[in-house]
Amino acid sequence: MTTALYLNDAYLQRFESKVTSAQEGGVFLESTAFYPAGGGQPCDRGELRSAGGARWAITAVEKSNGEILHRIAGDLPGAGTSVQGFLDWDLRYAHMRYHTCLHILSGVVFHRFGSVITGNQIYADRARMDLTLAEFSPTFAQDIIGEVNAVVARKLPVSVRFLPREEADRDPNLVRVSRDLMPDVREVRLIDIEGFDVQADGGTHVANTQEVGEVRLLKTENKGSKNKRLYVTVAPAVSASPVRE
User: Fold this and answer.
1) Given Cys at both, which of 29, 55, 120, 244 links 17, Cβ 3.0 to 4.6 Å?
2) Boundaries of CATH 3.30.980.10 in the chain?
């Protein structure tokens, strides 16, 4: 099974691996830092390179029967080929900032109203989240965004830890989506925004809330009596992120 390097280090933008097998349209690697689409977060893009100078553009990354498939257009590297993977870092980092933004947003409404997530989607320049909220108005939504920015400004560390599934199941506060959507795993991966919120999640995140930047409300939609949608964007990153290669 592919070792998912991004689960422990979201800032890894270059890695070495070997092709374990190939199928029409893509390859599987021993290990990868490429995130496969899932949980509302789009897949990473980038390329693989061989020591001999060959390059293969990664057009999509997806889960396939428990493995991670790297889709490639054109000729494929054969099994056993040693490769280096290079992520499109600007795209990955944008996804990280938005994913952490949505965690803060869901944390605010969960702690204030007990609301849970009914849907979300991340893009490179915006994101949306659906929440079980009964009350809703532009003023109400802007108040929530104000609280999100207050958390961002606290410069809270964001870390990853793992908890045995049976322990996670005993704490209903850790899972903000339907339990039916939880993967069948022995350990649950938690994203811990220190002193503010902890919830189960498999995506990539920034290491400190200040990296999110200023959160701005784009628009709201009423999707039902208890289902409200908020669209947000974040200010452009003002400095390079703390990248580790």
Assistant:
1) 29
2) 92-234
CA 38 to each of CA 22, 26, 41, 160: distance values in angstroms, whole numbers, following the listed order: 22, 18, 5, 18
Look at residue 172 in the predicted model and tell me its pLDDT: 83
Question: What gap in Å lies between CA 119 and CA 105, rounded to an integer?
Answer: 13
C-alpha angle 63-67-73 in degrees, rounded to nearest 5: 65
Q: How confident is the model at residue 240 (pLDDT cuts 50, 70, 90)?
A: very low
CB atoms within 10 A of CB 66: 7
3-state class of 113 per DSSP?
helix
- The helix-helix angle for 138-153 and 89-113 (nearest 10°) equals 110
Phi/psi for 152 (5° steps) reads: -55, -45
Which of 193, 188, 187, 169 lies closest to 179, judged by CA?
A: 169
Domain 92-234, CATH class in plain words: alpha beta
| Sheet strands (E) in 132-214 | 158-164, 187-193, 197-200
Residue type, 82: S
Average pLDDT, rounded, for the chain: 92
Q: What class has domain 3-87?
A: mainly beta
What 3-state DSSP class applies to 21? strand
Cβ neighbours for 43, distance < 8 A, ≥ 6 positions apart: 34, 35, 36, 37, 60, 61, 62
